[in-house]
Write a structure and sequence with these properties.
The structure holds three protein chains of three kinds. Chain B is an alpha+beta fold. Chain B has four helices and nine strands; from the N terminus they run βββαβββββααβα. Chain B has one domain: RNA polymerase II/Efflux pump adaptor protein, barrel-sandwich hybrid domain (OB fold (Dihydrolipoamide Acetyltransferase, E2P)), CATH 2.40.50. Chain B has helices spanning 26-32, 79-82, 85-89, 114-122, and strands spanning 5-6, 11-16, 19-24, 35-39, 46-47, 52-58, 62-66, 71-76, 98-102. Chain B starts with a strand and ends with a helix. Chain C is globular. Classes of the chains: A alpha/beta, B alpha+beta, C alpha/beta. Chains A and C meet through helix 1, helix 2, helix 3, helix 4 and helix 5 of A and helix 1, helix 2, helix 3, helix 4 and helix 5 of C.
């Protein structure tokens, strides 16, 4: 429990007000020359009303954001085993390379002759992704994973439209991440969920029974969100191809198989890749991401603008229909300019650092670490699927329910132990799910420490110490927060009382 | 809770002449948790049986409310806009959602009665 | 390998604990024919020295806008980012944190999002803003989808001044229905207003528009309101909001903007940060993440992500959008820069930009054959040259000057824009840069 101090702070845990509560007139964190205000061509549209930005000096700003940062858990701070998020170490060399002025100060609309190095980066990342996926071409522009899904599904839709075979239905496993059905529905498809079987995989029989020539595609995640490899994927691919549909793969879990399996060899027609997962670009508190999409030869023609071409003059980007080569059937443009260049540089730095051998080791160590957790914890916690798993281990809340707490309570108790909780309540196909993805970057000692802590918590639970969980966390910068209040009466900004 | 009829999706209806009041059951509100927002349909709309009539948002989930019977929406419970918690507190009373002028009042009897609904609930336990 | 902590001994011990002989046994579910027995044809791992050498080599092949006189705008602007910004966003607790789904240990991220949302609302003059979008173009497309949901109407009217990338993205992401786009020209409002009907969901107007022109949107706002359509105002140069009337003041219902000008380098076009703001009564139809204030069990103020039932992880097929990530770290950079500027700094910075632009426009006007055709502008204007602008740009690049963006780069199909050049000026434009530009044009133009 926090003690009450005079200042309101607790040692190194500071109570930090909002920026707007600390501003003062006449303060600024920048020194700029006074404008002359002689001439003005603003057409009489000068902004006269006060904007309301508070004035702070640089020391105040640095202190404010430093204190706020200290309230965050992060990969740099500790173990962050969020399932399917791949919270691996974010190498600092990536940050250094992205900030080279030859990259950071490059304007996207410079003549291509002045940006050949940057275009080579895009080309090189695409080349690595082609080799790793075995697919034909990479659409580099999607801004994040969800946009990558949209991109992949749009190429499928365009391919079907081209052969006059617009279809209405998409099959999605019940265990899929929410972006999958959201993406399909946003394109006007009817989403038909396919149940899982007792082994935690998509039910092949149910899948086959739902197939028809009105199915445009099946959206599969492999390994799936239960951390299991869809071992019948070749049959699934054959079945969807037989009805003229496509196999879309959500590449969120690529970390489990990178360098050991090529998606093309599994019959996958297109797959988005999350550079901010498998390729270590930082999560930044929620973004930015980058979601390039690997495409089969059939689908490549429909890839969006812009895309890279080589000619005698060097590399350049095709940005629209006018200069597109014959046969281009791009479905459109997904975002402004060229894509998440800053993330490409970081990913390329990561790829070069690891090499082909290192990436293969990444998958092996990721899978090994997850199986280690599964094997050592499946007697304490309840594991719905026996091993082996791939890069993440799934548990359910059977033990918790028996003793009277919820998955949420257990997760909050982990916070007090200095760990970020694993993913909870996802996938939906298992009750009170706990999904742990340790990644390859966790040491054995780190895992052992986590395992010992989980075992000790379960022992407390069995000893009847329910409030230990129900009142957790006690040691975090905030205790449990009232989400109902936040949703019933949303306060989404600061307002001055003046 | 007497005089109510139920659907398998946990809606209830109470008939008064030709008009049925509709809401969600105590089981449903408990499953949803604290309700934060309700999207009610437009007055005057004609709705088929089983069609989506309203959307309930709790903190962690969003759920559809389906019309237990076909009819015209003649009244909606405006109070729920500012006090969605009424549905949690009094789901079969003050937490009513809407009133339907039924296309076919005799269809009311085809809905589950109290005993059938209780039996249905046992399957969830 | 420096990022992989497991040793051979660790692996052995762990395999024993699991009860298998080798890691291959863990991949047993992979169909045999899909198992790669050897490493793929990729180079082996490299140390930092070597990797840095390769990347530096690639970086040095570019002539970046920071190293030569540069007048490029057209949607992204080269501004000075104070040193403190980059230091703060590289703090590991910000850089390597995830989406704040466990709010008790994410109050840092959450408080900064709440502050960001407030700053965006204040800057745009709107009531509420979300926790950022991918970029201005996708924010615009999402604003259109939002307007369709709010009004339950279909017709979308896009004014000719919208950035061509934004127009293309809107056409790609806004599916179906009636999307009408007007051509770019120096227009009065009449044509646009005449096309607003009771079927119109929204009218999309960019201000300053793509040619740099600023105008008062109040007339369009009144016309929209009369027909029940929403006015969406798009801003690609967020700094302009420090000098000109906000979209909120001019009657905007939704604002979609690009925030890159605050805190974010050019980065060859990405990542950047989209801003989305609107009237409060539309907030439940707003896509993306929202951070809200609340209290914890001890009665202390704190923040959480809220109204998430609109989002993909809960509504799934019925979500307002399929969006998952926002532009977190870029939004933080925006916020820190805005905090350092404050009211006075922001206004000064904006006026410095404008003054320099006015100065350059006057100098350019004096060149024979060169006409500045934009009347009212912020920091960017269109210049008409006696020859094709694209050629002028190429020949200037050979002389190591980036003189502007030829309109033909974004309007390749429009012959009538062949001789037009977009010139942007910021606080980083020195007098020497302007003189170099004039000298270069004198050489390159006939």
């Amino acid at each position: 429990m926090m003690g009450k101090t005079t200042s309101g702070h607790n040692g190194l845990d500071f109570e930090e007000p909002l920026l707007f509560e600390q501003g003062a007139k006449g303060r600024s964190g920048v020194d700029l020359p006074r404008p002359h205000a002689k001439k003005n061509r603003l057409g009489g549209l000068e902004r006269k009303e006060e904007i309301g930005f508070p004035g702070l000096s640089e020391p105040q700003v640095i202190r404010h954001f430093t204190r706020l940062s200290q309230k965050n858990f992060s990969i740099d701070t500790g173990f962050y085993p969020l399932g399917s998020c791949t919270m691996k170490h974010n190498p600092r060399l990536n940050e250094k390379m992205a900030r080279l002025s030859g990259f950071a100060s490059l304007h996207p609309l410079q003549p291509f002759t002045t940006a050949q190095g940057a275009l080579e980066v895009i080309d090189w990342v695409a080349a690595w992704l082609k080799t790793l996926t075995g697919l034909h071409a990479i659409a580099m522009s999607p801004a994040a994973g969800a946009q990558g899904e949209l991109c992949g599904m749009m190429t499928i839709r365009a391919a079907l439209a081209e052969r006059d075979d617009a279809r209405a239905r998409i099959l999605v496993p019940e265990s899929a991440h929410g972006t999958n059905p959201a993406t399909a529905a946003s394109l006007g498809y009817r989403v038909d969920p396919v149940p899982g079987d007792v082994r935690g995989r998509m039910d092949l029989k149910a899948f086959r029974s739902k197939l028809g020539d009105d199915v445009a595609a099946v959206m599969l995640t492999n390994p799936n969100t239960c951390g299991l490899f869809e071992n019948e994927i070749l049959e699934i691919a054959r079945a969807i191809h037989d009805v003229g549909g496509f196999l879309y793969a959500d590449g969120a879990n690529f970390n489990a198989i990178v360098g050991r399996v090529r998606p093309a060899d599994l019959g996958i027609d297109c797959m988005h890749i999350n550079l901010h997962k498998t390729f270590s670009t930082p999560h930044g508190g929620g973004g930015p991401g980058s979601g390039p999409v690997a495409l089969s030869e059939d689908l490549s023609a429909f890839a969006p603008y812009p895309f890279l071409v080589h000619d005698d003059a060097g590399l350049r980007l095709i940005e629209g229909d006018v200069d597109a080569p014959a046969g281009t059937k791009a479905f459109g443009r997904l975002k402004g300019f060229h894509g998440q260049m800053g993330m490409f540089i970081r990913a390329l730095t990561y790829m070069l650092s690891h090499g082909g051998d290192g990436l293969r080791q990444v998958a092996e160590d990721a899978v090994l670490n997850a199986n280690y957790l599964l094997a050592t914890l499946k007697n304490e916690l309840s594991a719905p699927y026996p091993g082996p798993c791939m890069h993440e281990a799934l548990f359910d809340d059977a033990v918790f329910r028996k003793y009277g707490i919820t998955t949420l309570d257990f997760a909050k108790a982990l916070i007090d132990e200095g760990f970020h909780p694993m993913t909870i309540y996802f996938p939906l196909v298992v009750h009170g799910a706990l999904l742990m993805e340790p990644t390859e970057c966790e040491s054995r000692e780190g895992l052992d420490h986590f395992i010992a802590t989980v075992k000790a918590l379960v022992a407390r639970l069995k000893a009847g110490q329910l409030t230990h969980f129900q009142e957790a966390p006690r040691l975090a910068p905030r205790r449990r927060l009232d989400e109902t209040k936040a949703a019933r009466n949303p306060v989404l900004r600061w307002r001055s009382n003046a | 809770m007497s005089g109510l009829r139920y659907t398998k999706d946990h809606e209830w209806a109470r008939l008064d002449g030709e008009v049925a009041t509709v809401g969600i059951t105590d089981y449903a509100q408990e499953q949803l948790g604290d309700i934060v927002f309700i999207e009610l349909p437009t007055l005057g709309k004609t709705i088929h049986q089983g069609e989506e009539a309203a959307v309930i948002e709790s903190v962690k989930a969003a759920s559809e409310v389906y019309a237990p019977l076909a009819g015209e929406i003649v009244e909606i419970n405006e109070k729920l806009q500012s006090e969605p918690a009424l549905v949690n507190a009094d789901p079969t009373g003050k937490g009513w959602f809407l009133k339907l002028k039924l296309t076919d009042p005799s269809a009311y009897d085809s809905l589950m009665d109290e005993a059938s609904y209780r039996a249905h609930l046992k399957e969830y336990a | 390998m420096r990022y992989l902590p497991l040793t051979a001994e660790d692996r052995q011990k762990m395999l024993e604990a699991i009860g298998v002989n080798s890691v291959d046994d863990l991949f047993v579910d992979v169909p045999k024919q899909a198992r790669l027995l050897d490493s793929l044809d990729l180079p082996d791992h490299l140390g930092e020295i070597e990797v840095e050498r390769i990347l530096s080599g690639l970086a040095s092949k570019n002539i970046d806008a920071g190293s030569v006189p540069s007048f490029l705008g057209a949607g992204l602007y080269r501004h000075f980012v104070p040193a403190a910004v980059d230091h703060l966003i590289q703090r590991g607790e910000f850089l390597t944190a995830y989406t704040p789904y466990q709010p008790e240990i994410s109050q840092g991220t959450l408080q900064t999002l709440f502050e960001f949302q407030t700053q965006v609302a204040l800057l745009t003059g709107m009531e509420v803003a979300n926790a950022s979008m991918y970029d201005g173009a996708t924010a615009t497309a999402e604003a259109i989808l939002m307007a369709r949901r709010v009004t339950r109407r279909d017709h979308v009217l896009i004014s000719g001044g919208l950035h061509p990338h934004y127009r293309d993205v809107a056409r790609t992401l806004v599916l179906g229905g009636d999307i009408e786009t007007l051509p770019l020209k120096v227009e009065g409002d009449e044509e646009l207003v005449s096309k607003i009907s009771p079927k119109t969901a929204c009218v999309v107007v960019q201000n300053p528009d793509f040619s740099g022109n600023i105008k008062d949107l109040s007339g369009i706002s009144v016309a929209c309101e009369a027909k029940g359509a929403l006015l969406i105002v798009v801003v690609t140069e967020a700094l302009s909001l420090g000098a000109i009337k906000s979209p909120g003041e001019m009657g905007a219902d939704i604002v979609a903007a690009e925030g890159q000008s605050f805190g974010n380098a050019l980065n060859f076009g990405g990542p950047t940060v989209g801003l989305l703001a609107s009237r409060e009564r539309f907030v439940r139809q707003m896509p993306g993440r929202l951070c809200g204030e609340t209290m914890d069990v001890d009665g202390r103020r704190g923040w959480v992500l809220t109204l998430s039932t609109r989002e993909q992880h809960i509504r799934r097929e019925k979500a307002t959008s399929n969006i998952c990530t926002n532009s977190g770290l870029c939004a933080l950079a925006f916020s820190i820069h805005a905090a350092l500027l404050g009211e006075d700094g922001l206004r000064r910075l904006a006026l410095i930009n404008h003054e320099k632009a006015v100065l350059l426009s006057e100098k350019l006007e004096k060149l024979p054959g060169v006409d500045v055709i934009t009347q009212a502008f912020f920091n960017e204007f269109t210049v008409h040259l006696p020859v094709a602008a694209a050629e002028v740009v190429e020949r200037s690049a050979e002389r190591r000057l980036l003189v502007g963006v030829p309109l033909s780069r974004l309007y390749p199909e429009k012959n009538e824009f062949k001789n037009h050049l977009l010139v942007a000026v910021t606080e980083l434009t020195e007098d020497d840069d302007m003189e170099a530009l004039l000298a270069c044009l004198k050489e390159v133009l006939p």
